Amino acid sequence: MNFSVYLYLFIGMGLVTYLPRTLPLLYLAHKQLPQWLIDWLGLIPVAVLSALLAPSLVTTAAERSFSLGKPELIVAIPTLIFALKTRSLGGTVLIGMLLYWLAGFIM
Amino acid sequence: MNSKEEFSSSQQKIFQDGAVAAWPICLGYIPIGLALGVLAQQTGLPWWAVAMMSVLVFAGSAQFICVAMLAAGATIPAIIFTTLVVNLRHTLMSSALAVYLPGVNRRFLALFAYGITDESFAVNMTRFRDGGWDRWRALTVNHIANATWILATITGTLLGQLVPKGAFGIDYALTGMFICLLVFQLQGRIYIITGILAALISIVWYLLIPGDSYIVGASICAATLGYFLQRHYRRSK
Lengths: 107, 237
Description:
The structure holds 2 protein chains of 2 kinds.
Chain A: H1 3-28, H2 35-42, H3 44-58, E1 59-60, E2 65-66, H4 71-86, H5 89-106
Antiparallel strand pairs in A: 1-2
Helix pairs in contact in A: 4-5
Chain B: H1 3-8, H2 11-43, H3 47-56, H4 60-71, H5 76-87, H6 89-98, H7 106-114, H8 118-130, H9 135-159, H10 173-185, H11 189-208, H12 213-236
């Protein structure tokens, strides 16, 4: 692939990445938002993060089947406890990586 | 937002606060960015293409998918369409951030929107909710995270095959980050319930429906259920 093919690809990807991030903000920041919408949007962060995370812990990506006992899930438990106790984002990333690395030797 | 307050805090203080909030994101982005760069290099992307992608796209998961699709010989329209689907969740995040940026000028919003990622969103929302946070600090978080991401991905392509696959638990950096960002959001019973609902719905949705609709679909379902539960609970009190 040459330069211009990459350029077209990444400009296209860039547009479909940027527009979903900018249009709601440009529109909603200048609206008087009703209270129900503010309440609903307040629950969005926890819902999105949970939906991003949960399937990766208990399913296999290749055949999309349910699987308890993946190292991802087992490591997630001490990592979650660490995050709850310390509330340290950097520390949690490091602990998670370390435990997952160690799990790779054991499991 | 009080503009006098913003001017009274010095630029250096804003940068410091932004950097303190951003560094854990950077810590997570370095291994993930390196991993993406290594993968891209092994797929045959030159370093400048990775640099161009990180500047123009700045969306980690979409970039990983792009590299995987290029490796599988996918067409350019297919990759762009997949990117759109994967990034639709950001419409929800952008909407949620609008609550804390009322009436801010559109040029600022256009610049700010570029840096809305899962990670910067979660960090900024937590800070906004706790107070003592403003749009300039939030913008600093976005841009420090972005600069780190670009450098990490380029470095990854240059290191290339020096890094063995799966070394140092690199593959878990993103998961670890999501776990802690989720913990930050658990600020009461209704948030915990909504999080559990989202987890259950997303798992079932993921198993039953092909594609990536489970992220947006489960988020909307869980937030809506959580909202009605919260309203019911408030009324019955």
